[in-house]
Specification:
Helices cover 52% and strands 9% of the residues. It is of the alpha/beta class and 487 residues long.
Length: 487
């Protein structure tokens, strides 16, 4: 484990110094560089700066701004997703051909809207999302505004989606200052999926054979590391056709138009991550846009690193080193990842081991190591980091680290984030301790955000899911309110 073990009592009160050892790597050259970077000592925090106490046990204080009706709905939804067979039935119903029938479709969608949709999403349109953002802002949180469209397969669909993302920026400008932390974009929604797959194949082959020329490739940052999985591309791919190059040009124009609007609005744009089949192309788009639009100490374009991938730390290190050389600030969101089952199946189909860490503890270690590395980097220089975690220990470790190196009160350097409807206790606890905290808030018609809802149902499946801590606290607070009402 790369982060030093700390007694639980000390971790709980956040009164410790989280020392970080060099990043682990199977490749000596990368590990040596990582060690040299991480051995740099950060200046201690000013004497007047005291470490905050993150209280996650006082349910009354944590949920003081949440209406009882919302707590009841949250409790019902989270308990329902804890019952595995119920989740299976729900997913089957949502994916079934029965939804093609008008009556059945209307009934299922009505139930979904009043339960899972209202819990995990911000609304069906931008106006509803704006009201949701105002609500969380009143509770001391911020919102990541997410137009909930996902994959596009042709240019007409990409153009429609771009208009939705542009409108999303306009909505963010109409809301209270600083209530929207980021506008989110999915590259899969503004570039056809087939083209992203083709680009990823070509980028992987160039990694295998550096002499392989990609005439369309613009300036970017390193996308792969020595340990990155390249098995998706078994044979040398054909160059992009003239039509594909034209589609790529259109996709670039869409992203540049969205980035420029974000620059003019001074609103950071965060690019979501996807599965490794298309992630190389997404990273290429993200880094190319960052080189153009990230200036001074103000990253406008943020990328996403999924730390459940074994190559996450190496790729992060290589990208930040390259950015330092050309003098641009980078912004990253760290997440654990959301495509575990899919990644393992793809790797197995090619006869390779999974690119995902072998254990949940390895994933925790990876997330914590990457968090520590990025926080030290932004504390000593430029850039920003978003720590998107539902794990309580990771949240506490990162909070302690932030104060140890002096960025606890430098709000533009660090943001915590959790999904709407998940880990609310951690969100409120970190916010009460003085950190900036955002909720990831997708909006759109129920049918459009259905893939997102299905992933949330899977993520919360089982009694031991991450939502278990919230379920207990919500149940405790509801019990307290009922007793107070009766007595």
């Amino acid at each position: 484990m790369a982060t030093r073990a700390v007694p639980q009592k000390i971790v709980k009160n956040l009164r410790f110094k989280a020392t970080t050892k060099p990043l682990n790597s199977s490749h000596p050259s990368t590990a040596a560089v990582a060690g040299a970077v991480l051995e740099k000592q950060s200046p201690p925090p000013p004497p007047s700066q005291t470490l905050p106490s993150i209280d996650l046990n006082n349910a009354e204080k944590l949920f003081s701004t949440v209406p009882t009706s919302t707590l009841i709905r949250s409790s019902a939804v989270l308990h329902a997703t804890a019952v595995g067979p119920m989740v299976d039935v729900g997913i089957w119903a949502l994916q079934s051909r029965l939804l093609q029938n008008g009556i059945m479709k209307d009934a299922v969608m009505a139930v979904t809207k009043k339960t899972f949709f209202e819990h995990f999403c911000a609304g069906e349109d931008a106006d509803a999302a704006g009201r949701s953002i105002r609500s969380v802002n009143d509770a001391g949180l911020r919102g990541m505004l997410v137009y909930g469209v996902e994959d596009a397969h042709d240019n007409d669909g990409c153009d429609r989606n771009l208009n939705g993302f542009l409108h999303c920026v306009d909505v963010s400008k109409s809301l209270p200052h600083s209530s929207v932390s980021f506008v989110i974009v999915k590259i899969t929604a503004i570039c056809p999926m087939a083209l992203l797959e083709r680009m990823s194949d070509l980028l992987r082959w160039q990694q295998k054979d550096p002499s392989f020329v990609l005439p369309w490739k613009q300036d970017s940052l390193p996308i792969f590391s020595e340990s990155s999985p390249l098995y998706h591309t078994q044979t040398k791919p054909e160059p992009l056709t003239q039509e594909e190059e034209h589609d790529l040009q259109l996709a670039n124009q869409r992203l540049q138009q969205l980035c420029q609007k974000c620059v003019e609005s001074n609103k950071p744009l965060l690019v979501d991550a996807e599965h490794t089949t298309v992630q190389p192309a997404i990273d290429y788009f993200t880094y190319s846009a960052a080189i153009v639009h990230n200036k001074d100490d103000n990253p406008i374009v943020f990328g996403t690193i999924q730390t459940y991938l074994k190559d996450a730390k190496e790729r992060l290190l290589l990208a930040t080193q390259a950015a330092d050389k050309i003098g641009i600030p980078l912004g990253f969101k760290l997440v654990r990842g959301a495509y575990m089952s899919m990644e393992s199946k793809i790797a197995e189909s090619f006869g390779y081991g999974s690119p995902i860490h072998d254990s949940i503890q390895d994933t925790h270690n990876s997330f914590n190591d990457c968090s520590s590395f990025l926080m030290e980097k932004v504390a000593n220089g430029r850039g920003s980091v978003v720590l998107a975690t539902h794990n309580i220990e990771s949240g506490k470790l990162a909070a302690a680290k932030a104060y140890e190196i002096g960025i606890g009160k430098v709000n533009h350097k660090l943001e915590f984030a959790q999904l709407c409807g998940m880990s609310d206790a951690l969100s409120y606890g970190l916010s009460n301790a003085g950190f900036r905290v955002s909720k990831y808030m997708p909006y759109g018609p129920v049918e459009m955000v259905m893939p997102y809802l299905l992933r949330r149902a899977e993520e919360n499946r089982g009694l031991l899911a991450a939502s278990g801590f919230d379920r207990q606290l919500i149940r405790k607070e509801l019990g307290r309110r009922i007793k107070a009402a009766i007595f």
